[in-house]
Amino acid sequence: MALNAKRLKEIKPTHLFKGSVIGAILFLAYFLQTTGLEFTTTSKNSFLTAVNVVLVPFISWIIIKKPLSKNTLLGAFISLLGIAFTSFAGSDASGQLAFNIGDEISLVGAIFFGAHIFYTDHYGGKMENCMVMVIQMGVAALLSWIAVLFTGETQFDFSFEALLPILYIGIIATLVGYGIQTASQKHTTSGQSAVILSTEAFFGMIAAILLLNEPVLPTMVIGGILIFLGILAVELQPLKRITALN
């Protein structure tokens, strides 16, 4: 995509603006998700990030005044219950139920992930894939380097063990993953995309259990189920009605 120089020459100021908005939102989403991981578990971070699916219709309502359905409100309520179970899973040193700063940051990150899905559909659907990817990834990378300088994290480790996860996140999880998402959203709605992307929570929990040996708490399982049910309430019921009409 980045090597398609002829198509990149067609980038206009409006494309640059729209792509930059998408890239800035993507940076904030990743920055907050990564920061939240410093203070909470991978499983909780994954489930809380999945809440972005429920937030997409609300973002559409705020930005383009798209009416909210009863299913959206029901799904939001169910997901809030799920957030309560998931975020308060476990306890702190004093024995009190713990909703820590990492959970709060992860939730804010979920808002930006929801905004990224919305704006990729709202702006990206009217642009060439290569334009969207090059601009949004370029802006996200630039902002990431600025964040590194401002946070003072200038001690770089170039060992294989340090570079491998960076390369995986940068190439597979970001470039390939968002490249496929950007192309796919031209053939579906932001809501449908959000439902598919919500499976990240499940895979995140499984990875945390298998690779990081994180404990499986009953409250976290209940919360995850409720969040997923909330997602289904928001998105699949409208799809069922559309299918029935066809």
Verbal overview:
It comes from Aerococcus suis. Pfam families: EamA. Belongs to the EamA transporter family. This protein is mostly helical. It is built from eleven helices and no strands. The longest helix is centred in the last third of the chain and has 28 residues. The two termini are 37 Å apart.
Topology:
Blueprint: H1 5-8, H2 13-37, H3 42-49, H4 52-64, H5 70-87, H6 101-122, H7 129-151, H8 160-184, H9 190-197, H10 200-212, H11 218-245
Helix pairs in contact: 2-6, 2-7, 3-6, 3-10, 4-5, 4-6, 4-9, 5-11, 6-9, 7-8
List keywords for this structure.
about 250 residues; mainly alpha; globular; 11 helices; Permease of the drug/metabolite transporter (DMT) superfamily; single chain; EmrE-like; Diverse_Substrate_Transporter; disordered C terminus
The total count of helices amounts to: 11
Strand residue percentage? under 5%
Low-confidence stretches: 91-97, 239-246
Please give the radius of gyration in angstroms.
19 Å
Q: Helix and strand succession?
A: HHHHHHHHHHH
Number of strands: 0
InterPro entries: Diverse_Substrate_Transporter, EamA_dom, EmrE-like
Protein name: Permease of the drug/metabolite transporter (DMT) superfamily
Domain EamA: 12-87, 105-234
Subcellular location: Cell membrane
